[in-house]
């Protein structure tokens, strides 16, 4: 029974591991040193890569050197450079040496942490960092493991929402009967990220029972509790079952902040699950001076935030805390013979697979722990404040030019602005600003995206990639000025069709 | 408007990036060189890490050196070493230099690929590798983008199932009305992984409508199409709506294989969505000699597999293909102003956020592309065959000892066996084998897990970590022999209580 020659292939080749890794590190170092030179938004045409590459996988192997060369020539042109200091689109996906090294270690150990025994350190470190974070953000004790609540790391806010909505749903179905699933109602605002609606649909709540409550400039696009109350009352009169209310703190569109306290009292009165979605802004609460936006958080049932946006953790690292894990476990906990073990049966341990959709899970806590340890709360505060300062700086530049308008308050590090040279109609301002934004983006020198607030088209300048400095913000402003001059010189911009 | 001193903190510190990364590479190299020496299953007690660590995050930063030292002293003892050559539990989570470097590059670029414009290369490379893989596994053309189907990379089979079940559900609700959600029925076997049941529950299908069809040793725990047919007929008679049938190819419990062809014909007849779940075994289909297990795959609507199990891609890399992406998009597609862009509106591009739960997504295709390019189909075939050979070798060792029994055929690289010295009852054999397995596991020299097939308790020996060689299999067998001698010498083993 001698071994077949199969072993001639060694996928975990330790002999070459360090030298190969060094080549990759060199490639990455070079990328970071040059990333500011690339067009920020990729300028390729649809199908560019399909045209370059063969239709079947190669039978023979290729060297790492050749592959790195191809990444440079073929892949890099198709990358929109989220790590460019001139990336101001969406929200930044911030990175750090600590998170990068955390990912390396996570990948090297490559444990599958579905339950405690699969690697006790993974579960216990996650519990530790979730409590650390909760305290760092000044969340109420009731969200911490120490306070009989708890938190978990997932890949996305969407996954967290699916789990929480399923938990809320199953608790309601137990009370009202399973037929009542078509009567459950979810409430959010017109600024709420669409993933909340998608998650509600995923868990089987009819899309027609998803209430999109309108907001307006008068409240800076925050929900008015009274509007929610009226919607709830109407649904109750129609025999429906109000289930879940999502408050957003730092909405994607304009960083608007729903009043958590007012919504919390309402949720309590009517027995709704209140979730606070702070995907982007959550990281800011490391700074005491920004925590007023979370006022009333003690009334919430759960909160989620994506540290992979603003807290230097690379993708992905999404946090969710809730006060009553038992409601989640009642809905999601399931197992099988082949996973049974004495630690789980003893009920002395947490098995995080019961807190999420999937069974398998990466050791994300290691990365987060590295970020917290290597930088300390001190530097994380500095990091957030530095980005808020950059946003204030850009806001001041915009305000210094009378042709421009900052449309909503700059709560965190997002500036929503527009060019408004004269008394134009909203429709023509929409076209003008689209054209300005496109002129900036197609120059390759910066990338910004837009939002539509009510009927106001705004350009979003989201500050804070890990390499953006004041000089990049100044360059962006010069670029905007330059493109504005060109556009306003053109006669017929307001006769254009809006392209999307 | 001078910059505040905030910039004194630089999270993306390029100056130190290479030297720090080298320290991490050195740590990892040392880990791989010594991993065979650690107890495979962690031997810590619940709470060990909570007792070591402070209750709040540090305010001041800590050096990388100190952190790596703490990982060695505090974290490593709490790791169950999935990368040990002596890990035979669950299924292996195989790794490779190529995937490791792919993850490094993915983390360095750190793009968020929700739609095409966010990084065209990410979307296009994913489409390319999904078609490459589909052809490599000999899937029908109809599952490929080339054939109007398509594939997508996700984090887990669970996520894929949630999406597919939601798509099947929404198509049915459109036909039968939204009230019919409580009438939808999902079929699977008692060997099906519990994540299918969990996914069905997540999308709002009542747990009482999840049919667990019993299997038995007579079919080696494969589903009998006729049993499914009878269940469907019964449900139709009760006015229910048969929706979704899950066939498993390579079940977690025993690697049993459901007859895809027979189930496919049945699904067609009754209009059910047929999904083939091949999380573990899918990777094997790179080898033509193993593809007979997929016979009838052309009748399926979708198929999923976790390449992070057996195809050297590190966690996570889960694949899903389906024939009619439009059904998925009808259910999952949703967007908002702030994501609108000309490429998406043109309908010329794929936006993968519409193929999954979350919006954000990592550039996993890069990792998979590196694995395919660096090794080529040739080495991937060698890799699978080498593990199948190891399993055959272990099977032969077990069969050479008359006190042992191999309980089901070794289809891939999993051997389900048990010690059966005499004519004992199933209950006492259960205790005996549990004791044997625990003796092996608590020795720290190897780690295996169990399954219960019908009423037969088996020890699962899952071969194939990236470093397991024939000598490790021989050592495992010697260890089993040694522990068997001890246990059989003890008088009262059959008076013990089964611990879980």
From TrEMBL, chains A, B:
Q: Which Gene3D superfamilies match?
A: Aspartate Aminotransferase, domain 1, dopa decarboxylase, N-terminal domain, Type I PLP-dependent aspartate aminotransferase-like (Major domain)
Query: What InterPro entries does the database record attribute to this sequence?
Result: Aromatic_deC, PyrdxlP-dep_de-COase, PyrdxlP-dep_Trfase, PyrdxlP-dep_Trfase_major, PyrdxlP-dep_Trfase_small, Pyridoxal-P_BS
Residues with the modification N6-(pyridoxal phosphate)lysine, per the entry, are 309
Going by the UniProt record, its keywords in alphabetical order are:
Decarboxylase, Lyase, Pyridoxal phosphate
Q: What's the cofactor?
A: pyridoxal 5'-phosphate
**PROSITE patterns linked to this entry:** DDC_GAD_HDC_YDC
GO terms for cellular component: cytoplasm
Which Gene Ontology terms cover its molecular function? L-tryptophan decarboxylase activity; pyridoxal phosphate binding
Q: Which GO terms describe its biological process?
A: amino acid metabolic process; carboxylic acid metabolic process
Q: Name one Pfam family in it.
A: Pyridoxal_deC
From which domain of life does this come?
Eukaryota
Instruction: Family membership, please give it.
Output: Belongs to the group II decarboxylase family.
Protein name stated in the entry: Tyrosine decarboxylase
Organism annotation: Daucus carota subsp. sativus (Carrot)
């Amino acid at each position: 029974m001698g071994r077949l020659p199969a072993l001639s292939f060694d996928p975990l080749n330790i002999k070459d591991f360090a030298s190969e890794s060094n080549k990759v590190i060199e490639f990455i170092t070079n990328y970071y040193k040059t990333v500011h030179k690339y067009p920020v938004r990729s300028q390729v045409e649809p199908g560019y890569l399909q045209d370059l590459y063969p239709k079947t996988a190669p039978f023979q192997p290729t060297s790492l050197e050749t592959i790195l060369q191809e990444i440079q020539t073929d892949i890099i042109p198709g990358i929109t450079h989220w790590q460019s200091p001139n990336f101001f689109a969406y929200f930044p996906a911030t990175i750090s040496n600590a998170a990068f090294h955390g990912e390396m270690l996570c990948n090297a150990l490559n444990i599958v942490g579905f339950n405690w025994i699969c690697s006790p350190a993974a579960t216990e470190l996650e519990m530790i960092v979730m409590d650390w974070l909760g305290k760092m953000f000044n969340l109420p004790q009731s969200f911490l493991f120490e306070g009989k609540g708890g938190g978990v790391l997932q890949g996305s806010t969407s996954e967290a929402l699916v789990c929480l909505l399923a938990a809320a749903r199953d608790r309601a179905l137990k009370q009202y009967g399973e037929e009542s699933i078509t009567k459950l109602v979810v409430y959010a605002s017109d600024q709420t990220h669409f993933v909340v609606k998608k998650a509600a649909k995923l868990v089987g709540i009819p899309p027609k029972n998803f209430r999109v409550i309108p907001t307006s400039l008068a409240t800076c696009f925050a929900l008015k509790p009274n509007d929610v109350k009226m919607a709830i009352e109407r649904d109750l009169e129609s025999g429906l079952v109000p289930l879940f209310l999502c408050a957003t703190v730092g909405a994607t569109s304009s960083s608007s902040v729903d009043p958590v306290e007012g919504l919390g009292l309402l949720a309590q009165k009517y027995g709704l699950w209140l979730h606070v979605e702070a995907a982007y802004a959550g990281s800011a609460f490391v700074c005491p001076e920004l925590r007023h936006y979370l006022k009333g958080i003690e009334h919430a049932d759960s909160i989620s935030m994506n540290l992979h946006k603003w807290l230097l953790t690379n993708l992905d690292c999404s946090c969710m805390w809730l006060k009553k894990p038992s409601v989640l476990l009642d809905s999601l906990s399931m197992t099988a013979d082949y996973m049974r073990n004495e630690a789980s049966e003893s009920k002395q341990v947490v098995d995080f697979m019961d807190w999420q959709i999937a069974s398998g899970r990466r050791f994300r806590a290691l990365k987060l722990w590295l970020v917290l340890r290597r930088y300390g709360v001190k530097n994380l505060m500095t990091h957030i404040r530095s980005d808020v300062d950059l946003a204030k700086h850009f806001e001041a530049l915009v305000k210094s030019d009378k042709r421009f308008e900052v449309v909503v308050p700059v709560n965190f590090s997002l500036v929503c602005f527009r060019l408004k040279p004269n008394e134009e109609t909203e429709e023509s301002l929409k076209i003008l600003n689209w054209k300005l934004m496109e002129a900036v983006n197609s120059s390759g020198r910066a990338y910004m995206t837009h939002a539509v607030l009510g009927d106001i088209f705004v350009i979003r300048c989201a500050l804070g990639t890990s390499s953006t400095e004041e000089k990049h913000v100044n360059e962006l402003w010069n670029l905007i000025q330059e493109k504005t001059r060109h556009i306003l010189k053109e006669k017929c911009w307001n006769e254009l069709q809006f392209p999307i």
